[in-house]
From TrEMBL:
<dbReference type="InterPro" id="IPR044731">
    <property type="entry name" value="BDH-like"/>
</dbReference>
<dbReference type="GO" id="GO:0008106">
    <property type="term" value="F:alcohol dehydrogenase (NADP+) activity"/>
</dbReference>
<dbReference type="Pfam" id="PF25137">
    <property type="entry name" value="ADH_Fe_C"/>
</dbReference>
<keyword id="KW-0560">Oxidoreductase</keyword>
<feature type="domain" description="Fe-containing alcohol dehydrogenase-like C-terminal">
    <location>
        <begin position="194"/>
        <end position="391"/>
    </location>
</feature>
<feature type="domain" description="Alcohol dehydrogenase iron-type/glycerol dehydrogenase GldA">
    <location>
        <begin position="9"/>
        <end position="179"/>
    </location>
</feature>
<dbReference type="GO" id="GO:1990002">
    <property type="term" value="F:methylglyoxal reductase (NADPH) (acetol producing) activity"/>
</dbReference>
<dbReference type="InterPro" id="IPR056798">
    <property type="entry name" value="ADH_Fe_C"/>
</dbReference>
<dbReference type="GO" id="GO:0046872">
    <property type="term" value="F:metal ion binding"/>
</dbReference>
<dbReference type="Pfam" id="PF00465">
    <property type="entry name" value="Fe-ADH"/>
</dbReference>
<dbReference type="InterPro" id="IPR001670">
    <property type="entry name" value="ADH_Fe/GldA"/>
</dbReference>
<dbReference type="GO" id="GO:1990362">
    <property type="term" value="F:butanol dehydrogenase (NAD+) activity"/>
</dbReference>
<dbReference type="GO" id="GO:0005829">
    <property type="term" value="C:cytosol"/>
</dbReference>
<protein>
    <submittedName>
        <fullName>NADH-dependent butanol dehydrogenase A</fullName>
        <ecNumber>1.1.1.-</ecNumber>
    </submittedName>
</protein>
Length: 393
């Protein structure tokens, strides 16, 4: 086990009707003027936004509600929201939705705290983020884990680039988690969320680090719980127990716990980000599209890790290493398919791409040769190209 520092300060308020505590939480964490951010119309149609607004009114908290956050959240939207928040005098930012909404709330908080710096410069690392403002979350999608994580992603549509930012300033002060708020999700979004939860753990689990027993066991048990309850939720998204397990697993999968003491990978995430940036596809769908190809390309660098994955997560025990690994990869891909998640470019809806496009994707993924990706196996532009090529059918 490697040295680590673990800090996960987000207060969790979990269970039925927990959203009714939102005003109390904002006041407790110092908020006096609130910007409420949300995505599409479902949060309005379900009555959740009205419920949140009524709770804020009852507590005497002035608020400004701004909707329209899109999947693969846009830096352009965040910039506009920063201007509105400054004009309103917001000192607390509440994301009501999933990862895209919460990530946007984080970005707006950073922007308001640093009004003389363009937001995108934080995401490109041209400027260091040294201060921000408080953020809270009312979670409606079990997926990204943004409600407890130190990360946030933004997409620059003008540049065709999607980037992530990790900083302690991204940790929300509180997260309200009522599994019933996920009941209105369409099956596709439920499935995308299941994939995202699993990938946040898999991208930490596949590591060259040895002797990390308790972290490995936590990751493996989380994956087994998601697999079991993901099947139930896919068939019945109103199953409270299954949706509860997925919601809590989503938070644990991305608060850092499942990768403590180990080198992390996150290559599939980087591969998926390029697909989302270029084709504006759902994040979870991009991950299921590339994972099987990544695994098929990388497993020989440390086959014993995949053998453990086969045994501990899937209960697969074959006589030979290669047979075991290939069976485990096939089982994982089959599970994604059972959720109606894509596992190749054609299923993703973008079709087989030209060789030139594959090379462009690979070049962008490694920042035009300025970086490699991955920790399990370090991947350069040629490696990334080969992985995209495996998924290109």
């Amino acid at each position: 086990m490697k040295n680590f520092t673990f800090y996960s300060p987000t207060e969790i308020i979990f269970g039925k009707d927990s959203e009714l505590q939102v005003a109390d939480e904002i006041i407790k964490h110092g908020g006096t003027r609130v910007m409420v951010l949300y995505g599409g119309g479902s949060a309005v149609r379900s009555g959740l936004i009205a419920k949140v607004e009524q709770t804020l009114k009852k507590a005497g908290l002035p608020f400004l509600t701004v909707g329209g956050v899109q999947p693969n959240p846009r830096v352009s939207f965040a910039r506009d929201a920063v201007a509105k928040a400054i004009a309103f005098g917001a000192d607390f930012f509440l994301g009501v939705g999933g990862g895209s909404v919460i990530d946007t709330a984080k970005a707006v908080a950073h922007g308001v705290a640093n009004p003389d710096t363009d937001l995108w410069l934080f995401w490109t690392r041209e400027k260091e983020l040294t201060k921000s403002m408080p953020v809270g979350a009312v979670l409606t999608i079990s997926a990204a884990g943004s409600e407890t994580s130190d990360s946030a992603v933004l997409t620059n549509m003008e540049l065709g680039v999607k980037r992530g930012l990790n900083t302690p300033f991204n940790r929300p002060r509180f997260a309200i988690m009522n599994p019933e708020l996920t009941y209105s999700l369409p099956p596709f979004q439920v499935s995308c969320g299941i994939v995202d939860i699993m990938m946040h753990t898999l991208d930490r689990y596949f590591t060259p680090t040895e002797g990390n027993e308790i972290t490995d066991e936590i990751a493996e048990s989380l994956l087994r719980v998601v697999i079991k309850n993901g099947r139930i939720a896919h068939e019945n998204p109103h199953d409270y127990d299954a949706m509860s397990e997925l919601m809590w697993c989503g938070s644990l999968s991305h608060n850092g716990l499942t990768g403590l003491g180990a080198v992390t990978d996150f290559a599939p995430h980087q591969l998926g980000h390029e697909l989302s940036a270029r084709f504006d596809v759902a994040h979870g769908a991009s991950l299921s599209t590339v994972w099987g190809s990544w695994a098929a390309y990388c497993w020989r660098d440390k086959p014993e890790r995949f053998v453990r994955f086969a045994d501990k997560v899937w209960g697969i025990r074959k006589s030979g290493t290669e047979e075991t690994v290939k069976a485990a990869i096939a089982q994982m891909v089959s599970y994604f398919a059972s959720l109606q998640m894509p596992t190749c470019f054609t299923q993703l809806g973008i079709g087989a791409q030209s060789d030139d496009v594959l090379r462009q994707l690979a070049d962008s993924c490694v920042f035009h040769g300025k970086r490699t990706i991955g920790g399990f196996k370090k991947l350069d532009g040629k490696d990334v190209y080969e992985i995209y090529k495996k998924a290109n059918y």
